[in-house]
Amino acid sequence: MLNETKEFIKEMYQIGDKVFDLSEEVIGEIGHKFDELKEIREYNQYKVLSAMQEAKLSDMHFNWTTGYGYNDIGREKVEEIYSKVFHTEDAIVRPIIVNGTHALTLCIQGLVRPGDEILSITSAPYDTLQGVIGIREEKGSLKEYGVTYKQVEFLENGNVDLDGIKEKINEKTKLVMIQRSKGYAWRKSLSIDDIKEAIDVVKSINPELIVMVDNCYGEFLDTKEPTDVGADVMAGSLIKNPGGGLALTGGYIVGKRDLIELISYRMTSPGIGKECGLTFGTTRSVLQGFFMAPYVVSQALMGAMFCSRLFEKLGYEVLPKFDDIRSDIIQCIKLNDADEVVHFCEGVQAAAPVDSFVKPVPWDMPGYDSEVIMAAGAFVQGSSIELSADAPIRPPYNVYFQGGLTFDHSKMGVMKAAQFVLDNKLK
Ligand SMILES: *Cc1c(COP(=O)(O)O)cnc(C)c1O
């Protein structure tokens, strides 16, 4: 490390000797793991590049239309490229999908009808989806429309309960939901092999069941995606992995053509579907971000591994460990109390390029049932492929750290978080 860099870290960023020395030690220990990431990154880079070439992407596709948005060739090109990368028949990729929850909601609402049952086989779904389904009371939930819900809990060892799936599927079951990432839960994220095994069981019971995967935070972690192992439909957020930090907003849905049609009828209107809708000049940044995404994801992963090992060395329980196989970009750290959660997030915020002078505070975020704190000094509001940390303020006080468009930045975020937590212990 250059002496100038050391000065930066120690003087400007006020990192004490303990955290600095530990960081150096961690880099020495985990450097070889970084090399392994390169293989997946390189494959995914060429996967995205070849999709853009095969689709004959050209700069005319960065223009946009007005009004109804019929024949918007840029919008159609973005959706074609997404379906090529995820190996699906069709795709919806739109700035009018406001977040990941919205993309997933459109899938669920488009695919079920009154009297149908939804089965989540990865325990309770992400907090915001609970209100959509009606697990948590919310006006307009699917429960109000006569859609019922069941879930299969994880086994003690964190695996999907394959026998439980068999028991819970019945003649009403229509849609089977799988969440790849841990969300706000202390569990391992499902690998592509785990997802394949579960889908195979579902399809062996009834091949007509629709399997939907919440792929948030999972894109480009592996050479395969859930749609390569049997998922019928999959959705995620453009301000997470696939937006590469450049997409300003949006969500994506990819899958079988008939299912995408049903979902598109929910997104706009029955009979209109995906033929309408403006892109508002977002196609260039969405595609440039998609192009950058495999690289950015690898940087965020290096940051997550660094975070894991550093906090492990500081005596905290972490999930996953630095050398575990990863299937999302999230690093979970079990802190001791609400104060530590707040200080951790303050540290991450203090490392941000935007709003570094702001103190994050817990608030009642819509869609969550406890207060949530978020450190996010991002160029794109709420972007969690950018360096960020969040946590619901409730026991067991897990904080979720993710993102970083560059490893160096992610590393600084981790060091600041560690420093803030340690400083406040000494007070
Ligand atoms: C982020 C996320 C979502 C959707 O969250 P939004 O904030 O609405 O984008 C859904 N599921 C999982 C697992 C997530 O990580």
Q: Tally of extended strands?
A: 12
CATH level 1 class label of the largest domain: Alpha Beta
CATH architectural designation of the largest domain: 3-Layer(aba) Sandwich
Largest sheet: 7 strands, mixed
Shape field: globular
Helix proportion: 40-55%
Helix-strand makeup class: alpha/beta
Main sheet strand line-up: 1-7-6-5-4-2-3
Domain count = 2
Oligomer: single chain
Order of helices and strands: HHHEHEHEHEHEEEHHEEHEEEH
What is the mean predicted local confidence, pLDDT? 96
- CATH homology superfamily of the largest domain: Type I PLP-dependent aspartate aminotransferase-like (Major domain)
In the CATH scheme, what's the topology name of the largest domain? Aspartate Aminotransferase, domain 2
Unique ligands: pyridoxal-5'-phosphate
Radius of gyration (Å):
21 Å
**What percentage of amino acids are in beta strands?**
5-15%
Q: If helices are DSSP runs of H or I spanning 4 or more residues, what is the number of helices?
A: 11
